[in-house]
Request: fold
Amino acid sequence: MTLSSKRLFGFFLSLCMTLIIGTGALAGNTAFQYSTIDALLGGLYDGEMTLKELLYQGDFGLGTLNGVDGELVVLDGTPYHISAGGKASIPSDSSKIPFATTSFFEEDSILKLDKITSMKALNTAVEKGLPSRNVFYAIRIDGQFSFVKARAIPKQNKPYEPLAQVVKHQVVVQFSGKGTLVGYYSPPFVKGVNVPGFHWHFLTQDRTGGGHVLDCSFAPTTARLDSLRILTVKLPDSKEFDDMNLTDDKGEEMDAVEKDPDMKQ
Reply:
């Protein structure tokens, strides 16, 4: 190899390393999202993105499968499908999603939590400890749970009803023991794009059960926070999405979907 060839090779290698490092830095600071929460609320339950494609965007996350078939949890790079009734299984790479949020989890800070007795107490404690309320956070909480009330929605068939109607058919189950909360905090200004505030899913330690969290209680532990200052949104490439009316405020519908059905109004 000539001197000029060695220099060219060295430059090329350096460029490749720069691109890899730069991409990794961006990936670790990025929340990736497929579709929007308002599209899901409006009944767009079929997407074209596969789980295999989604996992290129993160090793930590949550969402649902086409037909709002239960709940999706991504933990330590493995996706788990939580069916109605709370049973967790590993879906095929070809499974498709209508909505999900993922990121590559890289712990930035730790927040100590005292005993938590309710979802409201959890959200209050974590929000109080956030370095900023204007930044996205991926949040992982491993702990010993007194109880977790979780739900999953049975797979729907067309013609689809809005999510606020479909959620009336949710199946609510309760867990206790060790497990992990997989959550995201989104700033208030993303209303319509994602869930403002907190969105939590749960997975048992043995990875056999879980769901969308409605309420919980657990012993003192820590919350691991990963701050995310980049949001990448991939919109569905479909006529259904293009033709949707996404101008209305769906705040009341969001409240109906997120609330515990047993909670007094």
Summary: Helices lie at 3-27, 37-41, 51-55, 119-129, 163-166, 239-242, 251-258.
